[in-house]
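Recall that a protein's primary structure is simply its ordered list of amino acids. Everything else, from secondary elements to tertiary packing, is in principle encoded there. The following example makes that idea concrete.
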Amino acid sequence: MTTNGTEVSKFVTLVSSDGFEFVVLREAACVSGAIRRMLDPRSGFAESVNARCTFEEINGLVLEKVAEYFYYNYKNRNTDDVADMDIPPELCLELLMAADFLDT
């Protein structure tokens, strides 16, 4: 994929506050409004150039579940009667805060 003559990576790296890195398909990650805006080549953000988004507010455990959700959503986007995603109760509050922050 190219934009204005520059190659746009098919994958993006999401980095948690504790240094964990998750390489995610760009199309799946862009379900998040915040990530989509960060990666927009017209935004001028560094993330749009290096395809690397660092989240100082989200720890690795939560970001892993967020990345899992991105793929879950991507895989089931055109499917009816999708089973619920397994979410540990102890992560619910942090996931809600991350979803709000990420505009997901």
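The first strand starts at residue 2 and ends at 3. The mean pLDDT is 93.
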